[in-house]
Specification:
Blueprint (H helix, E strand, L loop, with lengths): L3 E4 L2 E3 L5 E7 L9 E6 L5 E7 L6 E3 L7 E6 L4 E6 L8 E6 L11 E5 L2
Parallel strand pairs: 2-10
Antiparallel strand pairs: 1-3, 3-8, 4-5, 4-9, 5-6, 7-8, 9-10
Amino acid sequence: QVQLVESGGGSVQPGGSLRLSCAASGSIFSILSMYWFRQAPGKGLERVSSTSTRGLRTVYAESVKGRFIVTRDNAKNTLYLQMNSLKSEDTAVYYCAIDSDGRTRGRGTQVTVSS
């Protein structure tokens, strides 16, 4: 069973940047497609990105396209989310997941964008 631990969240002003990490346990990380999700206060779970096994193809939600970049390091069992030009509407708990509906995800890391 894969365990996922997100880190790197925090508070930032609009226009700022953050880099999230997702560390995965186990030996199957390199054969998993990986996903980032987020959940804003009072809203449902939103899929932010989906990334292929080697990170060669990533699909982004329209709301983050051009601002967020996903990379992965299979040697380190780690997935990254570089978030640039952050907006207040990006405020949410961010999760990484191994399935496309987010059922198997970590505990999340809080991102707050506020002036």
